[in-house]
Amino acid sequence: MVEPVERDSRGILHPNAGLRRFELTRYPPSPGVDRFVDRYWLVSWDLPDVHEQHVLVHPVVNVVFDEGPGMVSGVQTQRFTRRLSGRGRALGVMFRPGGFRPFLGRSMATITDQVHPVAEGFPALHPVEPALAEALAGDTGGAEIAAMLDDALAPLVPDSRQPSEDTTALAELAARDRDLRRVEDLAARGGVSVRQLQRAFADHIGVSPKWVLRRYRIYDAAERAARDESVDWAELAADLGYADQAHLTREFTAVVGEPPGRYARRS
After folding, report:
1. Phi, psi (deg, nearest 5) at residue 168
2. For the CA atoms of 52, 263, 240, 178, what is the dihedral angle to 10 degrees?
3. Quick one: which of 16, 202, 207, 242 could link to 247 by a disulfide (CB 3.0–4.6 Å)?
4. Cβ proximity of 111 and 207 under 8 Å
């Protein structure tokens, strides 16, 4: 089930402030397409000035369309910033972890931290770009635009099960099961060696399993900070499997760009 942003804002830094500047709506993919796609999302804004929205991207590919050329964004390991100004809309398809691998046809590590035009990174979707751009520039409803993109993706979905789908299941298990804190534990749950798991993640997702586990821990910390004014950081560090509060503070600051206490106050 696709959760609304009010219940799941993971990855959107300072979501309360951001959602006063733009509207974010999510739509589910159709059966079959949902083997590889997590959701479609539509951002709308009408601003008198410039808003910079910082994002910690999930370990996934996003393909984004607006009034210009569509772009394929590989997994972004650093904080990503999108500048919004004037009035506009953007439609994205967020793939599941490893979900883009069958469409790319090569190791996902080859596009990590890279952005490519759709014509280059996903040429099979290039024909639908003009229709999507026209719909986004007009008054077509978000659900209808998402359905246009879903219809374009449906015939591209492979019939047979893909090797990357096993990796998708493990990455989503890492996101869902907060007791999984070590790569060795995740490998054991998948019935593979650590080395096999590392190779699969590099090939199918584009980042290491350690990176994925750490990213979801930071998501949890940021969500708590954004929603709870009285976070016990020492207790939260223990809950998330950090050695101590200092370890959480160092990692949070390095990834988010500010210490957790300051982030909580600003949120």
Report:
1. -55, -45
2. -40
3. 242
4. no
